[in-house]
């Protein structure tokens, strides 16, 4: 009984931390983009503008909870919730540190992939339920993009599974004590990262919401709290992909000595994740976006064969005894 | 000064504006082709001072002569440059042949480097005329505009309806009988039923706009999707509406709908004094600043016979080229942003900000300085201007090198823009495309080179060309043009003539005040010219410049008054948007956005 209570407390704590982190990320992103674009970004609310997210949140909570009369009401309301929930669920299998983590599911990696696939329903349903043309086009793009990119997202991490012999994320981390998997799975990492950007539809793969083309894409008709949920989902998605990259390829909370003894494992984990989040933000400031068909053909023609090749070579090298995890 | 001085030394004493060649030749050539043509050269009373061969033509021979000029003439006329009308009913000085209305056709032959103006007189009882839209593709919109503004009906026009005014508008605004001020009309009201009617008029009806609802022979295959892009959309750069007929994400057809930015700039020209109209010109291409003043003041000067001093000419060129850079930098940034690159525009705005600082030091204003005056510029350059300009001339090329890496060499951007939205030189000419859009197709035509004005022939610069005519080339041409503008500005810097910044002529504005307090004979003209504005002699003139977006020009008609009788503004963007359906067919939505960005239009320039 006590154990269950503790577990619940842990879950609550993680959620209570993740959501403010996502909110803070909005501020981090705006400030970082500001710096990279030679301007200031939000710096008025609180020290360095750090309370900007709080102000934004208050504003967005004060907005009218409006559902367009022409939309499919139930689905319209449900769609943003699905997105946020799917991403949050993925964190259940995330090993944050040697002791922190909600569940040690033995198919943790598969669970993550499944949740990532489910998250697309949020976008597709939002596009469809809005009953608006821009939203529909956005939803259509999202469906095609996610279906294409999740194929080799799954394949790209199979190299990791092959080397560690496990789907359990905690075991994958522990298997990297001798050396991070990035050493042997560099190609796999690159493919995973590209697929991850596409899954979280961030620039340069933000086609479902491409502002200059589709005004706001799938969330054109959303406002207020429901819009905030999409926002939350997006930033949690960025954190999730960053965290997964760290867990799968960069040794999770592990650090080589003497660095490991300087800071607790959880802090190392957070620092690594933050590094990748910054990378995501930097990508957004520096790249234009490809066209829809270019994005798809890039996925099917280059990424998928590459992912298969990576898997094949990894298997061969492992059989030949050249590499171990 | 710098060592480059010797080879850059400019000699303005030899400077002479470009002039049209022989009027008689073209007359005889036309008569040889169409012996029956009732072609009459304009009379001295009309005083056409721009030396463009101008002829009156019988309205029933219009199509025949047009056909001959376009198809049969050796070195034919290949562009319908402008088409407009004049309500002559209130003319005081009415020459022979002038009827109640004049429809004026301005054609251009690039191979001859010659223009011709054909005028057709109409009377109020029979305001009809044959449409030339089947001969000149771009006459379509121009004829619609003339119908909209004057109520002149073009027979067998494919789609004659309002273009700039709302569909529900009553009357034709450029008629002399139409009120020009709100105070001349009844107070504005919008009762609910009228509002309903206005909204209904804005509703899109595919069939009425000439689109099919379904594909396939019997419409069995599938329904098209109609997407209303604009008038409020992040990428249409202003209040511009395009209705897309789409099959999936592919564009089958599109209809551009303009007029949301119409302010009646031409009508205002008929109620402002020659001088007080200058600020209105700034707001035509609102990114062009003094570039807009340029053709207007040159046109008035030509009518009044004012010779501008060399210093004023060079100052004008320098500031106009600065605005070319300002406009192109904005284009560069927004173009990249339309492709999805968010950062370049912020860097470019910093560069623009620096240049606006210089403009502000010169003129006291930033985007709309209204700084040119009839006869010169408003004041002399400030002390220390050389230092400001020198710094900028040294600064910008380095930044452009960085943008080259960031934008032009970006693989994703190239993938999005190379071979997208391409058209050929031939298509460009047929649709009246000018400026960078034409040069991107590899067609070397720059007013500053072909028909130098204000002393451009003294400057050493190149005309950048593209070769494919796609979005990438249009951007490439503009980027190179900025470098050439820097070269021109540098030459202005090294060779700024001394002397007056404004001509000594009684009709310049504001009039000379130096001797006003000494004798009554200068006091009275000064008083009159300040309070009423100068009286410009009767005449007609068209002056064009290579503006930021293409060739912009003013066609002014003076009836010997303190105000213009007719102010026609020929803007490049109007022509550029008209060809959108041609280039967008078969594109995806994302391509259309790239294409729109690459055209670089300003809705104020389209609608006026």
Describe this protein's structure.
The complex is a heterodimer of chains A (325) and B (608). Chain A has 325 residues and is an all-alpha fold. Chain A has helices at residues 2-36, 52-61, 73-90, 108-129, 133-164, 169-174, 186-199, 211-214, 224-249, 259-262, 265-286, 292-319. In chain A, helix 3 runs antiparallel to helix 4 (108-129), helix 4 (108-129) packs antiparallel against helix 5 (133-164) and helix 7 packs antiparallel against helix 9. The longest helix of chain A is centred in the first third of the chain and has 35 residues, at 2-36. The mean pLDDT of chain A is 84. Chain B contains 21 helices and 15 strands. Chain B has helices at residues 5-8, 23-33, 62-72, 139-150, 192-202, 265-269, 278-282, 290-304, 310-339, 344-363, 385-408, 411-417, 425-430, 436-439, 447-450, 471-495, 520-531, 572-578, 580-584, 589-599, 603-607; strands at residues 40-41, 54-57, 79-87, 101-109, 114-122, 128-130, 153-155, 225-229, 241-247, 250-257, 372-373, 376-377, 539-546, 551-558, 564-570. In chain B, the strands form five sheets. A five-stranded mixed beta sheet of chain B has the order 1-2-5-4-3. Chain B has a three-stranded antiparallel beta sheet with strand order 8-9-10. Chains A and B meet through helix 5, helix 8, helix 11 and helix 12 of A and strand 8, helix 9, helix 10, helix 12 and helix 20 of B.
């Amino acid at each position: 009984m006590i154990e269950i209570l503790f577990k619940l407390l842990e879950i609550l704590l993680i959620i209570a931390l993740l959501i403010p982190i996502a909110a803070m990320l909005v501020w981090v992103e705006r400030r970082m983009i500001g710096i990279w674009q030679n301007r200031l970004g939000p710096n008025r609310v609180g020290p360095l503008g750090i309370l900007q997210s709080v102000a934004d949140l208050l504003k967005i909570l004060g907005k009218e909870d409006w559902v367009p009369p022409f939309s499919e009401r139930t689905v319209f309301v449900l769609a943003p919730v699905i997105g946020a929930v799917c991403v949050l669920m993925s964190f259940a299998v995330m090993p944050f540190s040697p002791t922190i983590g909600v569940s040690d599911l033995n198919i943790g990696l598969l669970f993550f992939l499944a949740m990532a696939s489910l998250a697309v329903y949020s976008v597709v349903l939002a596009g469809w339920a809005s009953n608006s043309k821009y939203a529909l086009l956005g939803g259509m793009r999202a469906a095609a993009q996610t279906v294409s990119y999740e194929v080799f997202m799954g394949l790209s991490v199979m190299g990791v599974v092959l080397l560690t012999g496990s789907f359990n994320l905690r075991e994958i981390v522990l298997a990297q004590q001798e050396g991070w998997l990035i050493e042997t799975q560099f190609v796999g990492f690159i493919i995973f990262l590209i697929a991850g950007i596409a899954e979280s539809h961030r620039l340069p793969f933000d086609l479902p919401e491409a502002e200059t083309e589709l005004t706001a894409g799938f969330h054109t008709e959303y406002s207020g709290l429901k819009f905030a949920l999409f926002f939350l989902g997006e930033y949690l998605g960025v954190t999730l992909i960053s965290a997964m990259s760290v867990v799968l390829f960069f040794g999770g909370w592990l650090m080589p000595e003497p660095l490991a003894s300087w800071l607790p494992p959880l802090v190392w984990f957070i620092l690594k994740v933050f590094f990748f989040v910054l990378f995501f933000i930097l990508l957004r400031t520096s790249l234009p976006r490809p066209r829809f068909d270019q994005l798809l053909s890039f996925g099917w023609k280059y990424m998928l064969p590459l992912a298969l090749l990576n898997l094949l070579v990894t298997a061969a090298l492992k059989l030949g005894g050249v590499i171990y995890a | 000064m710098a060592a480059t001085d010797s080879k850059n030394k400019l000699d303005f004493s030899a400077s002479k504006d470009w002039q049209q060649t022989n009027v008689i030749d073209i007359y005889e050539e036309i008569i040889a082709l169409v012996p029956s043509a009732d072609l009459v050269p304009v009379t001295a009373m009309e005083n056409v001072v721009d030396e463009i061969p101008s002829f009156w033509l019988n309205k029933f021979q219009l199509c025949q002569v047009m056909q001959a000029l376009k198809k049969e003439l050796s070195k034919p006329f290949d562009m319908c440059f402008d088409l407009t009308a004049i309500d002559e009913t209130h003319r005081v000085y009415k020459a022979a042949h002038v009827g109640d209305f004049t429809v004026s056709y301005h054609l251009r032959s690039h191979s001859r480097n010659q223009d011709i103006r054909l005028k057709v007189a109409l009377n109020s009882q029979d305001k009809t005329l044959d449409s030339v839209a089947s001969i000149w593709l771009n006459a379509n919109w121009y004829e619609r505009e003339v119908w909209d503004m004057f109520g002149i009906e073009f027979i067998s026009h494919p789609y004659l309806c309002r273009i700039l005014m709302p569909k529900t508008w009553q009357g034709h605004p450029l008629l002399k009988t139409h009120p020009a001020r709100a105070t001349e009309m009844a107070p504005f009201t919008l009762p609910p039923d009228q509002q309903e009617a206005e909204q209904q008029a804005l509703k899109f009806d595919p069939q009425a706009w000439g689109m099919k609802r379904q594909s396939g022979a019997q419409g069995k295959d599938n329904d098209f999707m109609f997407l209303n892009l604009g008038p409020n959309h992040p990428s249409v750069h202003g209040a511009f509406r395009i209705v897309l007929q789409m099959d999936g994400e592919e564009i089958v057809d599109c209809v551009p709908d303009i007029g949301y930015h119409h302010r009646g700039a031409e009508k205002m020209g008929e109620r402002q004094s020659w001088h007080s109209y200058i600020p209105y010109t700034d707001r035509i291409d609102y990114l062009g600043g003094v570039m807009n003043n340029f053709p207007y003041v040159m046109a008035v000067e030509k009518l009044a016979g004012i010779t501008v001093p060399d210093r004023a000419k060079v100052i004008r060129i320098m500031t106009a080229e600065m605005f070319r850079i300002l406009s192109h930098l904005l284009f560069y940034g927004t173009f990249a942003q339309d492709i999805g690159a968010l950062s370049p525009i912020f860097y470019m705005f910093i560069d623009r900000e620096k240049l606006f600082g210089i403009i502000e030091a010169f003129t006291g204003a930033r985007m709309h300085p209204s700084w040119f005056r009839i006869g010169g510029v408003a004041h002399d350059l400030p002390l220390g201007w050389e230092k400001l300009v020198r710094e900028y001339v040294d600064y910008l090329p380095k930044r452009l090198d960085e943008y080259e890496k960031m934008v032009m060499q970006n693989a994703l951007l190239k993938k999005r823009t190379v071979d997208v939205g391409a058209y050929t030189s031939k298509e460009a000419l047929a649709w009246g495309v000018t400026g960078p859009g034409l040069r991107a197709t590899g067609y070397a035509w720059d007013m500053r080179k072909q028909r130098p004005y204000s002393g451009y022939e003294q400057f050493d610069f190149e005309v950048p060309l593209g070769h494919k005519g796609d979005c990438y080339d249009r951007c490439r041409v503009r980027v190179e043009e900025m470098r050439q503008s820097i070269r021109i500005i540098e030459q202005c810097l090294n060779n700024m003539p001394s002397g007056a910044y404004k001509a000594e002529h009684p009709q310049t504005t504001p009039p000379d005040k130096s001797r006003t307090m000494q004798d009554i004979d200068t006091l009275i003209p000064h008083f009159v010219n300040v309070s009423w504005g100068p009286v410009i002699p009767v005449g007609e003139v068209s002056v064009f410049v290579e503006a930021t977006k293409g060739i912009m020009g003013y066609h002014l008609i003076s009836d010997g008054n303190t105000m213009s009788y007719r102010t026609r503004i020929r803007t490049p963007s109007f022509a550029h948007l008209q060809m959108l359906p041609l280039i967008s067919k078969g594109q995806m939505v994302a391509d259309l956005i790239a294409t729109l960005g690459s055209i670089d239009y300003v809705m104020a320039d389209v609608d006026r």
